[in-house]
Write a structure and sequence with these properties.
single chain, 435 residues, alpha/beta, 4-stranded parallel sheet, 17 helices, 10 strands
Amino acid sequence: MKLFKRLMPLILIIADMTTIALALFLAYNSRAWIIEPNDIAFEKYLLFIPIYLVPIALFAYEGLYRYRYDFWQETRLILQGIILSALIVFSYLALTRSVEHYSRFVIVATFFFMALLLPLQKRLLKWLFFHIGWWKREAKLYGDDDFLKKSIFENSYLGYVEASNGAKSVFVNASELQSDQVDRILTEEIRKHHELLFIPLLKDFNLSQSKILELFESRANLVLLTNRLASPLNLVIKDLSDKLLAALFFVTTLPLMGVIAGVLYLSQGSVLYRQKRLGKGGKVFEVLKFRTMHENAQELLEEYLKTHPQKALEWRTYRKLRGYDPRVTKVGRLLRQYSLDELPQLFNVLKGEMSLVGPRPYIPQELEKLDEHKEIILSVKPGITGLWQVLGRNELSFQERILIDRWYVYNWSLWGDLVILLKTFKAIFDKHRAY
């Protein structure tokens, strides 16, 4: 067992090389299926060393065989490495004047299949190795954050397990400790352990996107933080990606929206529901949804809360009712379970009032409850989905959602938006969190 753990970097490299060979095979046969039979032997591609060497070298440079990254961060590094590898390989072919000896389609398709297969291979392999025991690494955590503890010790991709004897790695959560405690723990633990992971006090900022500068003489580090959504270029990029993806989603879901509209019209007459929400800069706009509530929803809610005082507390905390909600129709419950009632909001995105991903669209009556956070949260367009949706959907309290929305604005990235969109589909089908 110990031998396999020590050889894990080599095993991961061999697995990546095997996956690259599989990508070559798929690309080679794709050309035969799509364009014409290949006139270059497959062995020539299989023995093309740069297509293995360049990606593996870049992955090693990014620490993929040394550090234990989260799946989404590692996937981003893999995709970055593949894009750069493609540029280097084609430059090599051009400089050595050997570009005519290989099919451009096969080379491009190989990198495409690598982008698909490598993240999947790593996810499957690390899950398998974790359950075998090869990928497990004993660790201990200083701090009592249950969410952080779950993220570390219930993640087979990271591979950390709570230490029963001696820990190989130590996590120190500075946000839950006094400064003198942190200093003492770091001083003691760094002597005993090769790997010490320090969770900084600044929980509102994603430091993986920051630049760390060094002042050598004063022995100080400077963490360079930037507000990415304050950049006009980033705003243009986000707006363009929103419009393009919203148009694509609109075209693909149009038949489904037509069916839903027909069912709602026949069952209750009213199809759409318009509600005033706070947009960018606090500007009020009308958000569109499929109607899922009775016309007299407010009256039904007030009457229900009077007869169910325990639900009144739940309403004040979450601004939602878990389980039974007297306002929602039978058809509405089905639509809400899979978030289908929000499909018309694609119109709001195309009109420029919303983003696909962003903070929650708050109602005007909630403006004062945002307190000191309203300026930063309302500095961007609200989203159909957001980080609050994939982290806890409706299980989060109102205040927790505000803090998550603030974190999103501080730490926006295009990759982060893509991850949130992908994770939204999983959250939608989680029946325990959909209501």
